UniProtKB/TrEMBL annotation:
The active site is at K34. Its EC number is 6.3.3.3. Its cofactor is Mg(2+). GO terms for biological process: biotin biosynthetic process. It comes from Enhygromyxa salina. Keywords: ATP-binding, Biotin biosynthesis, Cytoplasm, Ligase, Magnesium, Metal-binding, Nucleotide-binding. It is an enzyme of class 6 (ligase). PANTHER family: DETHIOBIOTIN SYNTHETASE. The gene is bioD1. One of its GO terms (cellular component) is cytosol. The keyword Hydrolase does not apply. This is ATP-dependent dethiobiotin synthetase BioD. Catalyzes a mechanistically unusual reaction, the ATP-dependent insertion of CO2 between the N7 and N8 nitrogen atoms of 7,8-diaminopelargonic acid (DAPA, also called 7,8-diammoniononanoate) to form a ureido ring. It catalyses: (7R,8S)-7,8-diammoniononanoate + CO2 + ATP = (4R,5S)-dethiobiotin + ADP + phosphate + 3 H(+).
């Protein structure tokens, strides 16, 4: 399952961590994976947060995220901006990089006998990725089904429906969408956003993660997930 945000900072890592904890409660062997990460390392990095919520041990941090750059920009731009700004082909080989990601993911899956892999993307759907590629190339290359992560408030109807349509143009049917609430303030649009998106797209709302505080205090039960979330996901 590939977590795709409607934008950067939509809450993908927070949802992934919450799902890893929910999988453990459901006695499912789920592992995290972030094929390409850009930005500073440390305990607040995406891969460190994913590791802390997972069944992986500290020695598997590099396999969890095999491709890394220190610049806090899109992974493709950190790798080589030239193909994205019209200055020629990439110096990197996207197939070689996808091969490294597949190998690292397969090792983790085999080692932990994983029933589910939660793969976190970078930013939104149309994000530059290593080797002159784009995020949909990585969803296809890792043979995953997309799950959309969207903010719960005003504007999410447009952002989520655009992401659904863009995925479908590429024959990548989303499993569903999950809302995140990143701020404690109320928003009158929240009461209808999920229903509007479902009615327009036919894509189900599979969860709504409330505001968790800072640092986040993760739910101790699965009331934020759709009742049939695990059967639906595992059936795919």
């Amino acid at each position: 399952m590939f977590l795709v945000g409607t934008d950067t900072n939509a809450g993908k890592t927070t949802v992934a961590c919450a799902l890893l904890r929910a999988a453990a409660r459901a006695q499912l062997r789920a592992i995290p994976f972030k094929p390409a990460e850009s930005g500073p390392a440390g305990p607040s990095s995406d891969r460190a947060r994913l590791l802390a919520s997972s069944i992986l041990d500290r020695g598997e941090l590099d396999e969890l995220s095999p491709l890394r750059w220190s610049q806090p920009i899109a992974p493709g731009m950190a790798d080589d901006p030239n193909p994205f700004v019209g200055r020629g082909a990439s110096v990197s080989d996207v197939e070689a990089m996808l091969g490294r990601a597949r190998w690292a993911l397969a090792r983790l899956e085999q080692r932990h006998e994983a029933q589910l892999s939660l793969i976190e993307g970078a930013g939104g759907l149309l994000v530059p990725m290593p080797g002159g590629s784009w995020l949909p190339d990585w969803i296809e290359g890792l043979r995953a089904r997309p799950l959309i992560i969207a903010r719960a408030g005003l504007g999410t109807i447009n952002h989520t429906l655009l992401t659904v349509e863009s995925l479908r143009v590429r024959e990548l049917e989303p499993l569903g969408f999950i809302f995140t609430q990143l701020l404690p303030r109320d928003d009158a649009s929240r009461s209808h956003n999920g229903t509007v998106i479902e009615q327009r797209s036919g894509v189900p709302c599979l969860g709504s993660l409330p505001y968790l505080g800072r640092p986040p205090s993760f739910p101790e039960d699965d009331g934020w997930l759709a009742p049939d979330f695990w059967p639906r996901v595992l059936a795919e």
